[in-house]
Structures are given as structure tokens and as C-alpha cells.
TrEMBL record:
<keyword id="KW-0238">DNA-binding</keyword>
<keyword id="KW-0010">Activator</keyword>
<comment type="similarity">
    <text>Belongs to the LysR transcriptional regulatory family.</text>
</comment>
<dbReference type="InterPro" id="IPR036388">
    <property type="entry name" value="WH-like_DNA-bd_sf"/>
</dbReference>
<dbReference type="InterPro" id="IPR036390">
    <property type="entry name" value="WH_DNA-bd_sf"/>
</dbReference>
<dbReference type="Pfam" id="PF00126">
    <property type="entry name" value="HTH_1"/>
</dbReference>
<dbReference type="InterPro" id="IPR000847">
    <property type="entry name" value="LysR_HTH_N"/>
</dbReference>
<dbReference type="InterPro" id="IPR005119">
    <property type="entry name" value="LysR_subst-bd"/>
</dbReference>
<keyword id="KW-0804">Transcription</keyword>
<protein>
    <submittedName>
        <fullName>Hydrogen peroxide-inducible genes activator</fullName>
    </submittedName>
</protein>
<dbReference type="Pfam" id="PF03466">
    <property type="entry name" value="LysR_substrate"/>
</dbReference>
<keyword id="KW-0805">Transcription regulation</keyword>
<feature type="domain" description="HTH lysR-type">
    <location>
        <begin position="8"/>
        <end position="65"/>
    </location>
</feature>
Length: 313
């Protein structure tokens, strides 16, 4: 009589998907906040129950077997379905008392959220947000896999499975060292940037590609040999005279109160901006509430940061 396998547990599916995404048992254990032996035991039990190997370990890391690759997408969909089921049950039984996972880019979250979360909590006393930072492309991927409930990402996002509510437009400021030839000018012309050595973040950041497009459009030189790991690092590189940079308006507003070593100016006639929006899975049970959150966020940003950004009406 053929062996009948038992359905895998939610925990086993979650462990399977996390190891696949991290390509490492150790990193997956850290992400899941469990011990590596416990993680290994659950995967071994899953493999034994299914009767197939899911992972191959070698010196380069942990790889999915062909069988594992075939099952991975099914596991992701099952996890997403269970999470949305639980979220829907919470909405029915408790209202908005659930903890929602919010993803934000590292070039935005630290300079936006401290200004808006207290007021958002005042409007929704039962709302809890678990905030994590990641690059926008990873946020969108994790959102579709159910690892985030909502995210604030750069626009545009044109996907049928993602709902989008625009929030605001943020200017990018042009920053130079205090001894630079353009220091002291409230505005600079696009032609004055031609040939300038422009610093930016590492290529994994969406901000890097936006600055790259600006340089190509204005005839400036993107400094690939010197790329910052964060906006603070980028700022310090400008102070040290390694080049000039574009910095987000919210960062300048939040972190540069006494920029004596730097000069901040605007680009005349061609202001440079980036757009941000709140996104979620189109199938999410709480999608009506997310639209309400987007409306509240716009109102709070307009009240507290209306002099820095332009809020969508």
C-alpha cells in the first residue's frame, strides 16, 4: 500500500520558503528567530513526510533541488492564503486590532515615519505597525509573497496584482561642499551641472538608478568608484570633497539643520522629484482599510510636512 504523506504544517512551509529565499539555513534561522537545529529538524521532518529532498547543501550555500523548485511557488501561495485568512478573521472579530507589516525604503522611512506615525496612532488607537526596511524591488516581491501587508514605495508601480494609492511628491536637493564653485547659489541651472562628478548610493537602491537617469539627462558624471551605503555616508562623502550629490528633501529637512559644511540648492526650471505611494496586494482582505490609511497619511503629511513635499489631492 503506498505511503500517504501528511499535510505539511504552516511552520514547515514558512521555514521552507525562508530558507529558499536566504539560500542559507543560518540566515533563515536568524530571520525566523529560531535555532538552526530546530529549523533543520523541521525541514528534515518535512522532507521525510513528502518523501523527496528539498535542499542541496554545498560550499556555495544551500540550493533548492529540482523538486524543491517545483514546490516553492505552491508553498508561497499556501502561506499567503493562510495569512490572508487570519487577517480577514481578525477584521471580522476585532476590527483593526491586528499588527500590520509595513515595508519602507531605507532612503525614506527614517525621515518620514517619525513625523507621521504618532499622528496615525492617534487616529487609529488599535492599529499596530511592524516596520521593516528594504529596497523597493525587494519590498514589492515580499509584498506579493505575504511577508508585508503594505509598503511605501517609489512610483510608478504598474502591476495588476498590486493596488496603489499615491501619497506625495518629494523634491531632490542639489548638495555641494562649502568650497565648491556653485556654493552660495540658491538655484543652479541644468547646464551648470554638465561634467560635475555626482555621488550616489550603491546600485541595489532605487535611488541610485534615479540619480543615474538624472546624470544622463544633464550630462553629469556618475561616480561609480565612490558609492555610499546610506544617505548619511553619501552626505559625508560630499563634505570630504569627493563630489556633489542629490539628496531627498525629507532627508535634508530631517538631518541637515546646520549644514555649514554643505550648501543646498535647487535646480532652476527643471526641479527633480520622486513620487511615493502606499501599495498592497489587490486581493488583500483589508484593502478598504488600506485606502483609509492612505487618505490619513496624506492628511498628516500635508499638515506636518506640507512645506517640504507636495501631497496628492
Amino acid at each position: 500500500m503506498p505511503k500517504t504523506s501528511q499535510p505539511p504544517s504552516f511552520k514547515q512551509l514558512e521555514y521552507f520558503v525562508t530558507i529558499a529565499s536566504q539560500s542559507s539555513f543560518r540566515r533563515a534561522a536568524d530571520e525566523l528567530r529560531v535555532s538552526q537545529p530546530a529549523l533543520t529538524a523541521q525541514i528534515q521532518a518535512l522532507e521525510s513526510n513528502l518523501g523527496i529532498p528539498l535542499f542541496e547543501r554545498n560550499r556555495s550555500g544551500t540550493l533548492l533541488t529540482p523538486e524543491g523548485r517545483e514546490l516553492l511557488e505552491h508553498a508561497k501561495q499556501l502561506i499567503l492564503g493562510v495569512r490572508e485568512f487570519s487577517q480577514h478573521a481578525d477584521l471580522i472579530s476585532q476590527g483593526h486590532q491586528s499588527t500590520y507589516k509595513l515595508g519602507v525604503p531605507p532612503t525614506l522611512g527614517p525621515y518620514l515615519l517619525p513625523n507621521v506615525l504618532p499622528a496615525l496612532h492617534h487616529r487609529h488607537h488599535k492599529l499596530k505597525l511592524y516596520v521593516r526596511e528594504a529596497p523597493p524591488n525587494r519590498l514589492l516581491q515580499s509584498l506579493t509573497e505575504g511577508l508585508y501587508d503594505i509598503a511605501i514605495v517609489p512610483l510608478p508601480v504598474k502591476r495588476d496584482d498590486i493596488s496603489v494609492e499615491p501619497l506625495f511628491t518629494e523634491p531632490l536637493k542639489f548638495v555641494v561642499p562649502a568650497d565648491h564653485r556653485l556654493a552660495g547659489k540658491a538655484q543652479v541651472t541644468p547646464s551648470q551641472l554638465k561634467g560635475e562628478k555626482v555621488l550616489t548610493l550603491e546600485g541595489q537602491h532605487h535611488f541610485h538608478h534615479q540619480v543615474q537617469e538624472i546624470c544622463e539627462r544633464l550630462g553629469a558624471q556618475l561616480q561609480r568608484d565612490y558609492e555610499g551605503t546610506s544617505l548619511d555616508t553619501l552626505r559625508q562623502m560630499v563634505v570630504m570633497g569627493l563630489g556633489v550629490a542629490f539628496l531627498p528633501g525629507l532627508y535634508v529637512h530631517s538631518e541637515m539643520h546646520n549644514p555649514e559644511a554643505l550648501h543646498v540648492s535647487e535646480l532652476r526650471a527643471k526641479p527633480i522629484r520622486r513620487q511615493h505611494g502606499l501599495v498592497w496586494r489587490a486581493s488583500a482582505p483589508a484593502r478598504r482599510f488600506y485606502r483609509e490609511l492612505a487618505s490619513d497619511l496624506r492628511a498628516i503629511v500635508a499638515e506636518r510636512l506640507g512645506d517640504v513635499v507636495e501631497v496628492y489631492k
